[in-house]
Write a structure and sequence with these properties.
The structure holds two protein chains of two kinds. Helix content of chain A is 41%, strand content 22%. By secondary structure, chain A is of the alpha/beta class. The N and C termini of chain A lie far apart (34 Å). Chain B is α+β, with helices and mostly antiparallel strands. In chain B, strands 3-2-1-6-5-4 form a six-stranded antiparallel beta sheet. Chain B is elongated, with a radius of gyration of 34 Å. In chain B, 37% of the residues are buried. About 1% of the residues of chain B have low confidence. The chains are: A alpha/beta, B alpha+beta. Chains A and B meet through helix 2 and helix 3 of A and helix 1 and helix 2 of B.
Chain lengths: 116, 408
């Protein structure tokens, strides 16, 4: 788990944040802080891409729920992409998928969000 | 929504892994705050809750105060006092989940404002060895599910783990605090013991001034108290009073105890003592500010004719101004090698006469007020009077002090 900034990309009014290999410790809060900063900067469309993320445990879920809440408070739109199947199952089980659409690839998510 | 679900294999695995993560976190050498935070996040993630907190219970204050929280904004100052009944109830409930106001197992915690602040759907007491250590609060679940029997079981196991961690931390903390207090008290005694011994050593050099340092110290503190000084500054002044003549250690004993007039050279030698005292004390580290400076300037006069620096008025530190008066008063009211003690009345009139010349007006007024209270029996523990020898006409002195304090 790193405390450095996550990789990030901006496309029009949408920001893509790349989650790193694990989202399973309190340091993962960095991701939440970065999303908060993006919202403060005015971005209302946020894609989190999980290509590099092996495992999301309960702490990770809690952090992602924190991000969901903050995006909702700002009337923004949050999308997840490139999740591993095990993680998707967990997200479904815990009710996250009711609030956040999940796309197979980053491009799919971008296509959807930039159209809308 | 279902109450008694069959636990699916996926959920079982997820919960198991959450439990193992929690065990790992709690047994890690990480700092306490981090462990508790991670534990809260783990639980919130396990039950997909967006708002939650852990509060710690302080049995001395009977208060629950914020330890960690998520999704509740700025609630660090949130705290609530709870009744013994509630505490007993929670200990009895021991990890059983209780929703607020929704059944016989209710836990009603303090004011509604607090409940509103923590946005809690359920409250779980954290109990170890029959002692309430805190509570966990959780808001609504993202999945809209109610807590099933299995959820409650898992939550209960998780809370037990957290309870043990909290328990160990509390015990550790209590022990630490107690040790610290004992240590502080012992150090305090050693410190003052040393300073008193030093003061006695200083006074011992002068056959006539036995107890002088103690009296000056006591007079100074009484005046400072009258002037509304803070406790810390007063302690500094007390110690400065005890040590103010430390420079006399370096002055010839024969000069200090001489009964006849001193020669110019001898006066010069004697007058070095404040500066020598300063040089000695400025090498020591005091927990209060300005102790060496007070000692250095306790023979200054407000008109600038004192020594060693010839400072005027407010350029002399307020502690030194107080001490100059206390020192002179004790010199007048005790026997000296060169003369007998002066009557109290004479000493007071001398101070009055030299106000704004030798003595600071504010210090003199404070001194008169303190003594007036003592003369009139308005002080429980008089400081100055017990040291004045010989008969005192309290009515006469009382009237004199009325005049001096502008209350004729």
């Amino acid at each position: 788990m790193t405390t450095e900034h996550h990789k990030m990309k901006v496309l029009k009014d949408c920001a893509i944040v790349y989650s790193d290999n694990y989202l399973n410790a309190i340091e993962g809060e960095k991701l939440e802080e970065e999303c908060e900063e993006l919202l403060e900067k005015g971005f209302r469309k946020v894609v989190i891409d999980f290509t590099s993320t092996e495992l999301v445990n309960s702490i990770g879920i809690s952090i992602l729920i924190g991000i969901m809440e903050k995006v909702k408070e700002n009337n923004g739109k949050l999308l997840f992409s490139s999740l591993r199947k095990g993680n998707i199952d967990a997200f479904k089980m815990l009710g996250l998928t009711k609030y956040v659409p999940i796309y197979e690839t980053e491009q799919d998510a971008l296509d959807s969000v930039l159209q809308g | 929504m279902f109450e008694d679900d069959e636990l699916g294999i996926e959920k079982l695995l997820f919960n198991l892994s959450a439990l193992s993560d929690l065990g790992e976190e709690i047994t890690s050498p990480n700092e306490f705050q981090r462990i508790v935070k991670s534990s809260l996040y783990l639980i919130m993630g396990t039950f997909s809750v967006s708002k939650g907190a852990i509060f710690q219970y302080d049995p001395d204050k009977m208060e629950l105060s914020h330890l960690v929280s998520k999704g509740l904004g700025e609630i660090k100052d949130a705290k609530v006092t709870i009744m013994t009944e509630t505490v007993n109830h929670m200990v009895k409930a021991n990890h059983l989940i209780s929703a607020i106001n929704s059944g016989p197992a209710d836990i009603k915690i303090g004011e509604d404002a607090f409940i509103e602040q923590i946005k809690a759907d359920i409250i779980v007491p954290i109990v170890a060895r029959g002692e309430l250590l805190g509570i966990l609060t959780l808001g609504d679940r993202l999945s809209d599910e109610k807590y099933s029997k299995n959820d409650k079981k898992i939550l209960s196991i998780m809370i037990q783990q957290i309870a043990l961690s909290l328990h160990n931390h509390t015990i550790f903390h209590r022990l630490n605090r107690k040790n610290e207090e004992n240590m502080k008290e012992r150090l305090y005694h050693i410190y003052y013991g040393t300073i008193h011994a030093l003061a006695a050593a200083i006074d011992a050099k002068d056959a006539y001034t036995r107890g002088h340092s103690h009296r000056v110290s006591a007079y100074c503190v009484a005046m400072a108290e009258g002037l509304g000084w803070g406790k810390t500054d007063m302690e500094g002044l007390r110690v400065a009073g005890l040590l103010h003549d430390i420079g006399k250690i370096a002055v010839e004993k024969s000069i200090i105890n001489k009964t006849s007039d001193l020669s110019n050279d001898e006066i010069k030698e004697l007058n070095r003592h404040p500066l020598i005292g300063y040089q000695i004390l400025s090498r020591a580290k005091f927990p209060w500010e300005g102790v060496p400076e007070i000692v250095r300037n306790h023979h200054e006069k407000v008109n600038g004719r004192g020594y060693p620096d010839g400072l005027k008025g407010a350029d002399i530190s307020r502690g030194a101004r107080i001490m100059a008066l206390a020192d002179a008063f004790d010199a007048m009211t005790t026997d000296r090698p060169y003369r007998k003690q002066l009557p109290l009345e004479t000493a007071l009139l001398e101070i009055k006469k030299h106000m704004n010349i030798q003595f600071d007006t504010e210090a003199a007024s404070a001194f008169f007020s303190v003594l007036k209270k003592e003369i009139k029996g308005e002080t429980e523990e008089p400081v100055i009077l017990p040291y004045i020898h010989g008969p005192i006409d309290k009515i006469k002195i009382g009237r004199l002090l009325d005049g001096l304090t502008g209350n004729a």
